[in-house]
Write a structure and sequence with these properties.
The protein is mostly helical. It has a domain of 69 residues. A two-stranded parallel sheet has the order 1-2. Helix 3 links the parallel strand 1 and strand 2. Helix 1 runs antiparallel to helix 2. The chain is globular.
């Protein structure tokens, strides 16, 4: 893990700053389904706690509830409690459109029986 490599090279002294300024700043994740999204947030929080890092009020794990392959933002939602999904969509859209992402890990959209038919996804 990157934190282990950092500690091996530089020691424990700046580990928390490394987590805040490098990992939390540069790590992005996209998940389409609600349950894995929630579990991903929980596991990431647990992992950070194991590393001795407590999330601060201004910290955010950049794990977004979104379809990785779609570039459209959700329209603003006017239902109570659902406006956060709209905000999440806009934040995810900003990352997809404006950040350079170096590594993508995940399941590809399977064309055999996929219901993910967003425009531009089919290769002929």
């Amino acid at each position: 893990m990157a934190v282990d490599e950092y500690v091996k090279l530089y020691g424990e002294g700046m580990k928390k700053q490394f987590i805040k300024q490098q990992l939390l700043k540069n790590f992005y994740a996209f998940e389409l389904m609600m349950a894995p999204y929630a579990i991903g947030h929980m596991k990431t929080s647990f992992m950070l706690e194991e590393l001795g890092y407590q999330l601060e009020d201004d910290d955010r794990v950049k794990y977004f509830l979104t379809n990785t392959l779609e570039m459209e933002d959700l329209d603003t939602v006017r239902f109570p409690g659902l406006s956060s999904l709209s905000k999440e969509s806009h934040l995810a859209g900003e990352v997809k459109k404006n950040k350079k992402i170096q590594i993508v890990i995940g399941n590809p959209p399977y064309s055999y029986d996929s219901s993910n038919n967003a425009p531009g996804l089919r290769i002929k």
